[in-house]
Amino acid sequence: MANKVLVETSARHIHLTEEHIEALFGKGATLTKKKDLSQPGQYACEERCTVVGPKKSIPNVIILGPARPASQVEVSFTDARTLGISAPVRESGDLAGTPGCKLVGPCGEVDLDSGVIIAKRHIHITPEDAEAAGVADKEIVSVKIESSDRSTIFGDVVIRVSPKFATAMHIDTDEANAACAFGECYGEIVK
Prior knowledge:
The protein is an alpha/beta fold. It is built from 4 helices and 15 strands.
């Protein structure tokens, strides 16, 4: 791998607690796997719901499984402006002091007091690949993406090392559009 890394676009999505799954989809409801994602154990679900902000709503937002300890809504800056929410850039799970929203499902609604974030760009990486690339957990790096029309260097990319990960960088749809990072795309870690 050295310093090359697969770049994947992570579109808007929702992570839910067991309690919120039941509130939105009915008593005893569980998530239905539609397809596996690149990160082991993570999957896109058949279930969808509407994210409601003070300004507008975004319908048909995909839910990712499995259930989590805290519900979280990950959007792009464009989505946040559409919703009318001033969402901060945060690592997944860092929800303290974040704004909330309403989630509407086929069987009910959930008012989240917090949990809306713009995911900090990051690289999931195995310990072996981290050693080969010369990076460490929580290190901040830059990643250069070459494209025919919009080569871009993304700064402030956090390294997340775990043997449970598959090595890949995650950026949101705004970032993918800015760099023309479509289809199979690779970036170069720059320190």
